[in-house]
Each structure stands twice: as structure tokens, then as C-alpha cells.
Amino acid sequence: MIGIVDYGFYIPKYRIKTKVIANQWGKCADKVERSLRITEKAVAGKDEDMCTMAYEAASPLIASDPSLKKSIGAVFIGSETFPYAVKPTSVILASMLNLSNNYLSYDTQFACKAATGALISAYALVKSGEVTHALVSGSDKANARPGDALEYSAGSGATAWILGQEKVVLEIKGWHSYTSETPDFWRRTGTPFPRHAGRFTGMPAYFTHIIQAVTRLLDKTNIKVDDISRVVFHMPNGTFPIKVAKKLGFSNQHIKDSYIVPQLGNSYSTSAFMGLVATLERAQKDEVILFASYGSGAGSDAILFRVTSEIETKRKKFRDMISRKEYIDYNTYAKYMEVTT
């Protein structure tokens, strides 16, 4: 049995209301909130970046099992907001966690699915027997140009995942990736904010790739919609995951526990992982979870998980961290995100 043996997460305490951002730019606040289905988003503090958040997510896992310091043989981080253009953040994280020097390490970039691709790589390394444990983190201090549509949803947060073969919490039953050259969202080197192709982010990008990845995975594994208990999708806004669930034949009941974007926003490379963490707070033994990320550029990684009895020993109180929050005004938000209005 190979899969996730432990997991962690971190959500900054600061929040900004969607209506506050809308009012800043003279938009109809109620209309913006209704269209995006996002009420507020998490905002990293001025002294936080994706590396410090990744550490907050991963450090409790090492503290609970110090033997991991020597047994982790791979460390990967997926993100869109690395603090260095040239300098591996995964190595910084490993050093902060005081791991041994005997590990493979690299950072991954594929927009909002950067970390799920890393998870599949880590799974392959553990399955091959080359490493005993692997650490994967998705972390982003997601930013957007002031006044842009992305500003209402781009949030902050991190998750961390330990993969191994013993005491597995989530067994990986199969995966499939669907990828194409669809440039719906991008940020050129040296530019501070991403750009997007508007309407192309919908059907040609998000919906097509997730639907294709999920459909082909279910065909490969001979799993039916009725066999799946819970579903997690990447959440760029509050509308897309509901629509894609319906297109694939799932109900609101399937996604209700993973649907946390209205309270947190889209934390880019860890958005779907945040939904998975929320689901694990309530998942039960032998349930099958369908997980599908999406990354602009474009691609989707679909993964099937089976929950084991080990979940009872590792279950986390995710919603307690969601409720730990402090609201800020727009000027404070701009200072923390280091943007000028």
C-alpha cells in the first residue's frame, strides 16, 4: 500500500472581505460576491511568504515523528510565488526542518497544479523503493494586479504531505494527467502580476482538462461515479467547481466538504489540496475520494484515493484554523501583499 501517511496545513489568520476589494474599485460589491461566490479570502502577513507557510504546514509532521528527518529521501515544493527566481525553496524548507542531506529536491512550476505533479513524482519514487518517505508541499502567497478580476480570489495558504508505504492514511489507487498548450493564464519573467485570457479560462481550459483527466482516470481504473464518496476539485472561484461536478455527474453532496473557496479564496498551487484537507476532517474508512487539480497552461492531474482506518490517528481539525481569523482593510492588505494602488 502506497500513499499519504500524514498531512499538514497552514492558513494565515488575516482575511479581507470581497466587498472591501469591490468598494475599493467602485464595483457593485453584492454583484461581485454573487458572481464569484467568494465572501472573503486568506491573506499572508507582511512577514510571511510561501516558504514560511510551507514550514508551518510541514513542521508539525516532523515534530510528531522525528524519525522522518532521516527517512525523507525527496522534498518537493510546488508554487507560483517562489521568493527566488534562482534558488531552490525546497532546500530552504528541508534545512528549516533539519532534515538529513540525503534527499532529492526540486521546486515545481505548473501554475495551480504545480504541487499535484510533484505528488505524483513522489508517489513514483516511493513505489519504486528508491526512497522510504517523500515530502511534498503546495504553498502560495497568491497575488494579482490591483483592480484585476483575480484580486477578488487570489488567497494564501500551504499544505504538506508525507508519502510512504506504512500506516498509509490515503492509499493512491490511480492517477491520470491530461495536458495541452492552452495559455489561459501566465506571468512573464520579471513581471510582478499574472495575466489571463478572460473567457478562455473556462471551457477550453479548466473544464476541458478536468473533465478529460477525470473521465480517463475512471475508465482506466474501472471506477464508476456511484463508487465515489467525495470529490475535490481545484477552486479558482466559487462557481467552477460546482459546474464541473455537475458536468461529471456528481452532486453538491459530493463536494460539500471540499468546497471551502468561499471562505479562503484560491491559494493557487494548494487550492485543491486545501479542499482535500477539509474533506479528510470528515472522511471515513474505505471511502473513495476523487481529486482533480487544474493548472493553467494547461493541465489537470486526477487522482483516486482510498481512505484507510489510519485516518482516525491522523485526522486534523482544519475548520478550527479557518475560524481563526482577523479582518483587515484594503490599505493593510496592500501593504501585506506589497502592492501599490
Description:
- By secondary structure, the chain is α/β, with parallel strands linked by helices.
- It has 2 domains: 3-169 and 315-337, Thiolase/Chalcone synthase (Peroxisomal Thiolase, Chain A, domain 1), CATH 3.40.47; 171-308, Thiolase/Chalcone synthase (Peroxisomal Thiolase, Chain A, domain 1, 3-Layer(aba) Sandwich).
- Helices cover 35% and strands 23% of the residues.
- A hairpin with a 6-residue loop joins strand 12 (288-292) and strand 13 (299-307).
- The N and C termini lie far apart (52 Å).
Features:
341 residues, alpha/beta, Peroxisomal Thiolase, Chain A, domain 1, 2 domains, nine-stranded mixed beta sheet, 14 helices, 23% strand, globular
Give the secondary structure arrangement, pairings included.
Layout lengths: L2 E8 L3 E4 H7 L4 H8 L3 E4 L6 H15 L3 H4 E7 L10 H8 L7 E5 L5 H15 L4 E9 L14 E9 L5 E10 L5 E2 L8 E2 L5 H20 L8 E4 L6 H8 L4 H4 L5 H4 L6 H10 L7 E5 L6 E9 L3 H4 L3 H6 L2 E2 L2 H8 L4
Helix pairs in contact: 1-2, 3-5
Mean of all residue-level pLDDT scores: 95
Termini gap: 52 Å
Write down the Rg: 19 Å
Structural class: alpha/beta
Q: Tell me the strand order in the biggest sheet.
A: 5-4-6-7-1-8-13-12-11
Name the helicity range: 25-40%
CATH superfamily of the largest domain: Thiolase/Chalcone synthase
Summarize this structure briefly.
The chain has 341 residues and is an alpha/beta fold. The chain has 14 helices and 14 strands.
